[in-house]
Amino acid sequence: MMSDLDYAISQLRACKPIPEPAVRELCYKARELLIEESNVQIVDAPVTICGDIHGQFHDLMELFRVGGDVPETNYLFMGDFVDRGFYSLESFLLLLCLKVRYPDRITLIRGNHESRQITTVYGFYDECLRKYGSANVWRHCCEVFDYLALGALVVGAGSSISDTDEIEVEVVGQFGEVISRMKRPEPSTTATAIGGPPGSGASGSAAGTKGVNNGAVLCVHGGLSPLVDSVDKIRLLDRKQEVPHEGAMCDLLWSDPDEIDGWGLSPRGAGFLFGADIVKHFNHINNLSLIARAHQLVMEGFKEMFDSSIVTVWSAPNYCYRCGNVAAILELGEERSGAGVPWSATDRTTVVRPGPGRRYRVFEAAPQDSRGMPAKKPVADYFL
Amino acid sequence: MASSSASTTGSSTPQQSLMSQSQLQSQLEPIDISSHNFTTPSKRIHNQQDVDYFLTSPAYKLITTFILHLNASVSPLDHSTNALRNPAHYTLVSETTNVSPAVQNIIDLIHALDSLITQAPPDAGPRRFGNVAFRKWHDLVASSVPTLLDQHLPPYIASHPTAKSELLPYLLGSFGSAQRLDYGTGHELSFAAFLCCLWVLGGFEPGRDEIALTLRCFDAYFHLVRRLVLTYTLEPAGSHGVWGLDDHAFLPYVFGSAQLTTYPPSSSSGEAAAAAEVNAPKMVDPAVASALEDVPKPGDVVTSLVVERERVRNLYFGAVGFIYDVKTGPFWEHSPILYDISGVQGGWGKINKGMLKMYNAEVLGKFPVVQHFPFGSIFNWGAPSHSNHNTTAATTQHQSNINNSNSSSSTSRGIPDTAAPTSAPTTRAPWATATNNSSPASLSNTGATTRAPWAATGTPSSSVSITTSSSTPSTRAPWAKPPAPDNVMTTKPGEQPLTTAPWAAPQVPLYPTSAGMSAAHHPPPPRQLSGEDTVAPWKLGGEGGAEAVPPPPVTEANLGPKRTSSPDSRLAASLDGEEAEKRRGSLGTGGVRVAETGDLSLGRKGSVVKGENNE
Asked: Which family does this protein fall into (chain B) (predicted)?
């Protein structure tokens, strides 16, 4: 017999909301699970890293089609599941169901939109009211938000995404066709700028790193904080709260990399801008090969910056029905050669940690089939 | 929003918030330019309390009167007599529309700005979203507008030594933010204010120019804006995604629904039919009867063929048509608010009335939208710039509760109380106090604490230095203009679109954020930050403020369309005691004000908006 959870999953996969009591139960289970997680979850490669979803449920289904389903594929979602789109509720609850059902096969970390204050402004609150007639479901979800991890550390990623060649970066289209490949430069190569994969449409944004891999990959929704100089500092935070307006936790969810030196004020009003020097220094002292983050729309779905020391992954195609962007997910394979050295926060023997092998799967918005036309809901009070 | 913005009339009766006919008229009465002292408009709104005050200011009265006046002027239904005029005379392409030279001049001005787009072609280079060439266009506009005003304004205004400097900021603020590469309803409001300035300077003729101003001049403006949005991929300012009325515009929905109003608002289809029946015998003119059949139904916005036909005739459909242009996917999915409104049974008059109320609450009452609206001699602030005065006492009390909780939570995290700026020249986050406007910020990192470095009032220190071309953590309202020309935050092309922090303005922080606070104890969200549209009324009941008390569940029963009591009275009734009193008062301002004046414009008790009789 199908369990309640499996039934909920099947409902949500069909983009149907589940009853309020089921949401309450689900959120309760999810909290029990998430409370055990560290602020920075350790995740073993292989893993597929995803960026913002923003309630684009049909595109999330497309993501699973392109990247493989749970639990076959191990996923890491970097937050911003909700707001702006029409199906924040279905998207978030499905991910949450999958988390409860397959806790070791999917990791959810918190985005700046997983917040009471932000969801009241950007749509999720309205959506819950509209779909349930009360804010209870919104409240349940917000309580889960408070327990989401702030980041994740992917360890054991291989240096190549290929068994045979030393392929460092591969861009694959939504039907599995290889758009471009870039071999890892010889270790002796000097650190000159390397062009992006030709024809990838990635505007040369995948620059490649040299040498062999060993560092871990830090995944966080926004970026770095001037108050956090080590991954361990993140572990010390008390995350079980609403996202503050300032401070380390806020910055991790709000900051953006930018072509500046050092730190800059963010036009967002929260978090900071941080430059290449900040990223490289942070990666070095934390023995990281790469920071993966989301938080910013990129037309090509992903964008590597600062000599591939940081990458933005964006997973909401045709954002807001009008931006015309493609989406991407980032696959990190596991170390196959056995030569990989376990990650250690203290081993800083190499000056620049080379990046892991990276396969970007790029995909477009789900086709708009006949999604039907729902009944019109009662309008806002203004029109009564 | 409506209620939180609220308030000033805590002790006054609803009647007091009604503008009398004479007040309405005097609001739009031309001023004598020769004896008038013009001032360069300046920013007055620094926080939510200032918005509350704004809603009682002469400037607010002026802009709402102007909008209501134009709104009534383009409605086929004469609000004063309930007489039906020929709807065919109220389309965007009606040949009966009298476009006077005064209006044509402004349309030509808009076309001149439009033609500057060719001189600032969009950059082809890599970018994230918004196109930086928009800044070039904006610069071109800024440099050519003084000359263009000389050419297109009446000579007595153009030649006046100081009048132009008061008009200029409103016009320049009408076309989006060059800094953030976005556009929103705040910019739209600025254009309405520009026209309103010209109106009170006697630049247009009452009774003659209203229709052309609304249906020709505004339409030209909307077209320019849409072209800008498309050319430079301008981000919606403060996008709410699918949960906003529209990504960019509001007034086309106000005026457009007025254009289609042929019978008074009714609350059911039955009444609507009855109203139509009542009107029918009056229609002796077969041309009117025929035109009436051509008026699209609210439900037609989901029919792309009808939208294509009507978009050239009607502002509402023009805006919907633009949505069809830029968005893919089902209409009900990407525009659920408009979709729901398309099911309103009370007719276009009902929709028009709702749009006016919504505009009042979601545009004029929203701090992020109005914060950069400048005030001068025409849009008169009418009082000391800060909000600690008597008329806002009611709100201030409410607000100060929140502020207190804010400051106490801040204090608990080590932020000096002095951190809160009270008269900062630019609007800034309350915690963003260390940086001043002029000097590059180089702030100390306080290390072990979780404070953001800028919260420190400290002097430059070595550990972390914040380098920025702008030292001002300016307010995030996406359309916000840079605080000062020499202080522009250089926004890279790649920074749009982005989610801005709602609290980035000195808006009231919503939640105690002290570490360790349990999730269950978060109070429900106050209404200030409610979404662009439907949120506010529902959330009222939840805004108790007391922690650990969940807001009363909103049920179908009290959300249902059949409710007879007004939303405001219901909401007020759900509260009790002092809080309720405050609410009722506040609703009297924020929620009811435009509703009431809207009633005026709809002809209640013979009240007439000036100019209407001239038709």
From this structure: Belongs to the PTPA-type PPIase family.
